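Students often ask what a holo structure prediction actually looks like on paper. The answer is less mysterious than it sounds. You provide the chain, you provide the ligand, and the output is a string of discrete structure tokens encoding the 3D arrangement of the protein together with cytidine-5'-monophosphate.
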Amino acid sequence: MSAWAELWVQCRMQTLSQRHIIVAVTGSIAAYKAPVLVRRLVEAGADVQVVMTEAAKRFITPMTLSAISGHPVRHSLWDEDAELNMGHIELARWAELIVIAPASADTLARLAHGRADDLLSTLCLATTAELMVAPAMNHVMWAHPATRDNVARLVERGVKFVGPDNGALAERETGAGRMVEPEAIRDVVAEFFAETRGSGPLAGHRVVVTAGPTRESIDPVRFITNHSSGRMGYALAAACRAAGAQVTLVSGPTSLAVPTGVTRVGVQSAADMRAAVMSAVADADLFIGAAAVADYRPAQSAADKIKKTAEDAQLTLTRTRDIIADVTAEYPGVFTLGFAAETTDLENATRAKRERKKLSMIAGNLVGPEHAFGRDDNSLFVVWEDGERHLPQDSKQALARTLVEMIVERLADERATSNTDSQEQI
Ligand code: C5P
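The corresponding structure tokens follow.
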């Protein structure tokens, strides 16, 4: 495993460390994967108590799960010994998160209707902890209107659904209904804690991200813009937030949903974007310029709509200010990641742009009809002071996560260097 990947795994472990999690197992064949989920959470440092329904015990024994979790498994409301140890109301209060994996169709129905006639349903009513469910059932059951209704009710109440996946099901059938794999559920749980509790490798960091195109007005109805979709910037904002940072997203016009926990400042022109960035970056230590900022704007924006009278029309353009170069000049302590959208000679152009703009890191990509803009995937050529790396074609979400991992590693290197420098001075 590479150093940065190890660092990321360590950070994830920290996110889960000492978290109080109830893993509830219900009656589905996917229950055989529950011990792996418990194992993954425990090895990441979480304190896990397992609750089983009566139906779950037909698929897997409580003994397996108590051995792995290190706590007796709870499966009855009427177990006097267990209640004396930690009553079910106490257990409901102890939990920061209840993960029901697998969650059967019956469990979803019972939760949707607020039942309280077994330990799990009672816990779910008695807790203020968040509820996460990983459904597992036959695809026809998942698609049934009754289940759809129950899911809609639960989503409306704030229950977080993880999956189900599409794929092979127990009865040698295929479809939507497969429980998401335990490692992926563990990652969602880690991200949940990073987002809501502010822990993670970028906890304590303030990040400003620019995204999307800008609009440079010609007159009240016309403007100059570009093809940027904003997807890379939004994915980076989400990845920074998931890593625990406080994120301000300064965005040109896009139709993308604002990632959870991110503060969005909407702007139109390059000048608006610069003003919003300069005010936000004063408190930040990380700046990511993923916006496709217009390089030129009309020298004058007409107050009234320009009439279609002349056969030819000229537009005089004037340069906009380079926002990211201004950030590096005014705030040299801020770590800056910029982008280079090139049509030819990607590597040299990217290296040169990093030097010219004095960026800590730059990610170059090819643009054009077959590349980048408006697409969900991309490939990047990343350059920093003493290294370079090609990131092969992947989704913008995956690339954003890798870029954040790389930033975390650079920040750790910078910290190590400044510690050594200050020790040498002593
Ligand atoms: O110079 P060029 O536009 O190719 O540089 C791209 C990088 O600079 C991107 O990170 C972009 O967000 C940033 N940029 C900026 N302000 C501008 C132009 C580009 O911050 N006016």
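The longest strand covers residues 387-395.
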